[in-house]
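Duplicate of #3305? Posting structure anyway:
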């Protein structure tokens, strides 16, 4: 049986280069509570939600086309396996589509078989499909605010 990694996509009227820039402006669409560099090949950053954190390394960085984050460490306090995201990959593919751009996200390793699947799907839908799309289309996303992120969970 083939694994069914989480996948989502949307289309925008922005150019691929603009989409690439906005994906890498992680503080503007996911959370303001990030340490590290989200905008260069090999960059390492950690996102914090109270006691929960995820640390990622950018392993693919192709302007206007693709970004891949490799999860090097995490602590998902509400799960039995608190390291469930470790060694997973978050893949953003950017492709021209008509007069705009198709943006897709695949979280390789986030499958229906893992404990966090339902809750994490809701989180990705909120931050990727809603907040990132809003950032690209309207110039302002809906990231978790730093003060809230310091005391809440994903």
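Output from current build:
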């Amino acid at each position: 049986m083939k694994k069914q990694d989480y996948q989502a996509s949307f289309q925008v009227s922005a150019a691929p280069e603009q989409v690439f820039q906005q994906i890498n402006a992680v503080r503007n669409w996911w959370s303001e509570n990030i340490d590290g560099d989200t905008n260069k090949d090999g960059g390492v950053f950690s996102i914090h939600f109270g006691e929960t954190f995820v640390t990622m390394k950018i392993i693919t960085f192709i302007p206007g086309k693709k970004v891949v984050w490799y999860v090097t460490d995490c602590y998902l306090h509400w799960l039995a396996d608190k390291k469930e995201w470790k060694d997973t990959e978050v893949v953003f593919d950017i492709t021209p589509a008509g007069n705009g751009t198709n943006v897709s996200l695949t979280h390789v390793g986030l499958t229906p078989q893992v404990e966090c699947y339902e809750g994490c799907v809701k989180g990705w839908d909120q931050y990727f499909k809603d907040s990132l799309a809003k950032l690209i289309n309207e110039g302002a996303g809906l990231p978790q605010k730093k003060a809230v992120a310091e005391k809440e969970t994903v």
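Confirmed duplicate; merging threads. The mean pLDDT is 94. Helices lie at 16-24, 117-138, 146-149.
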